[in-house]
Amino acid sequence: MTIFRGTFIDTPDNPFGGAALRVGTDTGLLVQDGVIVARSPFSDLRRAHPAEPVVDLSDGIVLPGFVDTHVHFPQIRAVGGLGLPLLEWLDRYALPEEARMADAEYAKGVATEFVNGLAAAGTTSALVFGAHYSDAVDALFTAASSVGLRVTSGLVLSDRLLRPELLTTPVRAYAESLALANRWHNVGRNRYAVTPRFSLSCTDDLLATCRELMEAIPDALFTSHVNENEAEIASVADLFGGSDYVTTYDRHGLVDRRTVLAHNVHPTDVELKTLATSGATVAHCPTSNAALGSGLFPLHRHLQYGVRVALGSDVGAGTGFSLLKEGLQAYFCQQLLGDQGRPLTAAHLLYLSTTAGAEALDLPQVGHLSVGQQFDAQLLRPAPDSPLAVALQHAEDTEEALARIFTLGAPTDIQAVWIAGDLLN
Ligand code: GUN
Ligand code: ZN
Predict the structure, then answer these.
(1) How would you classify the pairing of strands 221-226 and 54-56?
(2) Among all ligands shown, which has an atom nearest to the Cα of 157?
(3) How far is the CA of 90 from the centre of ligand 1 (A)?
(4) ipTM reported for the complex, 2 dp
(5) Cross-strand pairs, 191
(6) Which of 112, 115, 222, 114 is nearest to 177 (CA)?
(7) Ligand 1 close to Cβ of residue 70 (< 6 A)
(8) Own/partner pairs, 159-165, CB within 8 angstroms, 24+ separation
(9) What is the pLDDT of residues 225-248, one digit of tens each?
């Protein structure tokens, strides 16, 4: 057993329901086999466990590991392709890079960079859009296993409209997805997600195959994109006989509590109602929405309907792995919406990037640092005299300190990351 000593900030209760941030100043967490088995003021815990080794983190601030609910593994080398809307960006930047994943050696290199990038940003769990090629998805799960990240991912499926080398057929999609799930689902910390790219690039036959896969893979997640860009939405309506976007998935039984749909910038009220009653989660990806000019995310409407929302980096349309940056951009986005926006505090940003994501991914054992939870955590300790260090010295209270962390923090300020109590290298 090990005692971790420090200031721990987390959101075990939902700030959108009025709960306050939890701040544990000079607190001790006793961790056994990766699980937090006791939590109390450090002096009390020390007295009760005088012989256990202490890891002293008092010179920084400890947050739960981040949970990224939407990120594309094959797009890390496409980050920074600015200036285009979604469909043009896919053709010009994302899809040429995704086609390179046909080369398994290339994919291995990208997979290593990807998992290292996530971990360095304090992200310990992620729902990852995989690649269109099985070998590349194997490379991702292999790399995630060697770091110890909690990765849920799958083979990306499309059978129309994209460049031909990225297309599959329903029969092939079924066989290859199931083979991957048999190799990786619930093996170590890996899990499988059935992953059609978006209904724009998927026929009804392929979406029906996705439903069969959901039935064949117990407890798989389902993930895709929805309502991101107005031109995209109009094309989906044309292709599906005027149907709304959520219904293109829902009519195949693909919208339920295990569903995570990215973006939803332009939903109708009917779609929000469907998402709320089904228990699906929307992955809000604010830097991506800003970079592609997709629009301002209507968070308030989601919350009014009771739709679950968490955060995604959406690398590579998103601008990096850091959920600190996504949190800040989520805040900006709501500010820009004026009267229509939902004002956000630092507690909301932390909740969206930790507990909300853990719930979306059905990982109840992570997302906050209570007794019984896994010790997935990150230590923020900026370099002395850095702008963040200076700002933290002058914060009046811990909520203000957390707001400064979201405003000024970056992966370079994260000194250490643990998953299930293990320090990552
Ligand atoms: N919709 C379909 N594919 C993609 C993608 O790769 N990125 C984003 N942002 N939206 C998509
Ligand atoms: Zn995406």
Answers:
(1) unpaired
(2) 1
(3) 7
(4) 0.99
(5) 152
(6) 222
(7) no
(8) 159/201, 159/202, 159/203, 159/205, 159/206, 160/201, 160/202, 160/203, 161/200, 161/201, 162/95, 162/197, 162/201, 163/95, 163/99, 165/99, 165/102
(9) 999 999 999 999 999 999 999 999
Q: Is 362 within 8 Å of 221 (Cβ atoms)?
A: yes
Under DSSP, is residue 329 helix (H, G, I), strand (E, B) or coil? helix
Q: With beta carbons less than 8 A apart as the criterion, state whether 333 and 303 touch.
A: no
Decide: 98 in ligand 1 pocket, CB within 6 A.
no
Q: How far is CA 300 from CA 10, 282, 318, 334, 339, in A?
A: 23, 13, 22, 9, 10
Domains contained in the chain, CATH given: 2-64+367-423 (2.30.40.10), 66-360 (3.20.20.140)
- Give the contacts of 96 (CB within 8 A, at least 6 positions apart): none
Q: Quick check: helix, strand or coil at residue 70? A: strand
Dist. CA 358 → ligand 1 center (Å):
22
Residue with tokens 């409407």: 301
In degrees, to the nearest 5, what angle opens at C-alpha 96 toward C-alphas 94 and 97?
A: 65
pTM, two decimals, is: 0.98
Q: Is 261 in the pocket of ligand 1 (CB under 6 A)?
A: no
For ligand 1, mutation pick of 75, 87, 90 (most atoms within 8 Å of CB): 90
* Nearest-5° Cα angle at 13, 7 to 18: 110
Q: pLDDT tens digit string along 376-393? A: 999 999 999 999 999 999
